[in-house]
Specification:
Length: 360
Amino acid sequence: MRGALRGRGPAARPAGADEAVEVPLTFDDNRLASLVFGQYDQNVAHIERRLDVTATALGNHLVIKGSPDAAEKARRVFQKLYARVRTGGSTLTLGDVDGAIRESTAQATLFPAEAIAAEADKPHFEQIATRKRGAVRARNSAQDQYIKLLRTNELVFAEGPAGTGKTWLAVGHAVSLLEQGHAERLILSRPAVEAGERLGFLPGDMRDKVDPYLRPIYDALYDFMEARHVDRGLQTGIIEIAPLAFMRGRTLTNAVVLLDEAQNTTSMQMKMFLTRLGEGSRMIITGDPSQIDLPPGQKSGLVEAVNVLDGVEGIGRVTFKDVDVVRHDLVRRIVTAYERASHGDGDADRNPNPRRRPLA
């Protein structure tokens, strides 16, 4: 039996605020309700803080208290999370909870209240699915747009800060196309440009020197595919991970081709890569224009390409912002602080809510 939650909601409401209402919820399955609430009710506490409500959980019952709008939004979030664990049966992360909150917020701006109430447990953000990972749903509007563009365009540019899921979702989409038979190969590449260190000082042969630059792609692959399938794909050539320099002179047909960290390509390298696209192939190019490691004065191939190719049919482009960071809320605040500093704003987002105490 679960204990009641107390003392985590707002201490007091400002004068003139909407009168608080109580919204009860009962879930059919105690075990699934436990997954929704999270270990030590951490998901409930997170929703309380984010939506300015209080919630009391006991067994498979939940009572939400807050302003009418906030309580209704929290109800939709809990219902979405329950529908998700009922389908997948897996433990939810705080990122999943944030995704459900953002999805409910986006829903409220796009659909009338009656339609939302009738379909509270149905997903409205796009998702991708692989055999190992199952369904992975977009956590914000930018990711939702990204997945839609990946499905409808032969070439997609994705720009934005670290932690927005650009590379991770691109690899997941590529794996799903491979598993569905829409592609015969995955070709994943990065420019081997040093971020302050020198490549030549690393020990080993060329592969040993290059692998550290490609490690984020390996990590994403192992997230979406069983290790034995990744290893077999690498051995048979179905999956190829190579530095950008190895792309010259090739025509890549019936493949999904991903170029990561594209902000570190030169104009010539980017043009070379773009012209590798062959029949039946799709190309995804990701990068962060704020983290260019090229020598001073050298133009980024990514920055040039998105300007030159703007409006060309068959090319999609999505730009992520600091608010789209899903890796960790602190990462979002770090990115925001640097973004403001780069624009000369001294009041960076050091503490967005001074009333909140850090979690124990």
